[in-house]
Amino acid sequence: MTPPPGGPREPAGPNRANLAALIAVVVIAALGYWAFTAIERQREIARCLDEGRRDCLELVKPAP
């Protein structure tokens, strides 16, 4: 039996699995960052309201 033309090929499975894992880690990190910043924003607003201030909505900054 002769080998296929172009030489032996590596299986694409491990490369795709590594890429999928990398994408999953990046997505999880981005969601974690978003969640922590949202929690911190809510904490600032709650702290403002606890102080009895009325201008707490000015603390809410539009998302970049």
Concise summary:
With 64 residues, this protein is mainly alpha-helical. The chain is 59% helix and 0% strand. It has a domain of 35 residues.
Oligomer: single chain
| Low-confidence sequence ranges | none
Spatial gap, N to C terminus:
61 Å
Shape: rod-shaped
How many helices? The count is 1
Question: Considering DSSP H and I runs of 4 or more, what fraction of the residues is helical?
Answer: 55-70%
* Structural class by secondary-structure content: mainly alpha
Strand portion: under 5%
Report on the biggest sheet.
Answer: none
**Rg on CA atoms, Å:** 25 Å
Q: How many E strands?
A: 0
User: Can you give the mean pLDDT?
Assistant: 82
Element order, helices and strands? H
